[in-house]
What we know:
Layout: H1 2-21, E1 27-31, H2 36-50, E2 77-84, E3 97-98, H3 107-125, E4 131-134, H4 142-148, E5 153-154, E6 160-161, E7 169-176, H5 195-199, E8 205-207, E9 210-211, H6 217-222, H7 231-234, E10 240-242, H8 246-249, H9 270-273, H10 277-282, H11 285-292, H12 302-311
Helix pairs in contact: 1-3
One iron/sulfur cluster binds near residues 155, 190 and 252.
Amino acid sequence: MVEVLEKQNELSKSLKSEAKRQGFNPVGIAKLPGSERIQMRTSALQRWLSAEYHGNMKWMEAPRRQNVESLLEGAKSILAVGLNYYVDINRAPGSLSIARYAWGVDYHKILEKRLKRIGLWLQKQRPNCRWKICVDTAPLLEKAWAEEAGLGWIGKNANLINLKTGSWMVLGYLLCTEPLTADKPSTPSCGQCQACIDACPTQAITEPFVVDARRCLAYHTIENRQKELPNAIKSSIGSWVAGCDICQEVCPWNHKSIPSSKDQDIVPKQWILQLTKDQVLSWNDKEWKNKLQGSALKRIKPWMWRRNALATQGQINTKNK
Length: 321
Ligand code: SF4
Ligand code: SF4
């Protein structure tokens, strides 16, 4: 028994080292079915869905999201990884604002490619092990599992926050049938702070940890397929043409000296840092297609860029790090 545990510990450690070699940090492991905290987060998701805070994001309703075992039969463990996308660069003054996660190559592609390498590495060590990659297109209660695996805690703005690297990260997962040694879940550390709740221009954070997507600029600029944005969104949109980072920008955990990514895939595309309203309105669909090649921003169709840009009102008063 002791020998089995030692081998499990050794494999878990090596798996995390492999994940770090692929550029992920933080990394951690959770065991299925998870602690009571997962049940608590699942109940919170059910309440959020019942309140219809997910707007038109119907995929959030997938029952499989609430049952991780249904994604991979016989799954015993989950490796959670974070990819830091913070770069110590500012966009050009007067340009339109685009959420930082989308400045470089589409993160789905980066995560999938690297997680696949980790899965193949694991298979070499344990040929009978089955595994499955999950990025945010798979129905997994992702932030709750990242918290469970010790990557960080879910902040009052509903983002995952790591003590050392803040919240500028995208998350990926590798489910596997191999028993692994779990890390300690993270402890919530927002304390009395509520800077994100106060700073949200649309009061979308209706109570700590609960974001009503129907009031959120990120949801409306990316997911809303209506010709017109609601008036309440138009009047608060400021310069945000794609996504919104305000509730992350004000977070004190992002104001400490956090590492600037040196990852080649994270390097921002120049046009994203200098985008003007005139460009958005003058580019035709073909130009947009070229610009959005390999970018997570492809989700925003050219007509939506024009709709969003028309609503923008120039600079708003945020740190825009
Ligand atoms: S992303 Fe923007 S609009 Fe949405 S909750 Fe955060 S601050 Fe509010
Ligand atoms: S701004 Fe404050 S309350 Fe909001 S997530 Fe950050 S630490 Fe938590």
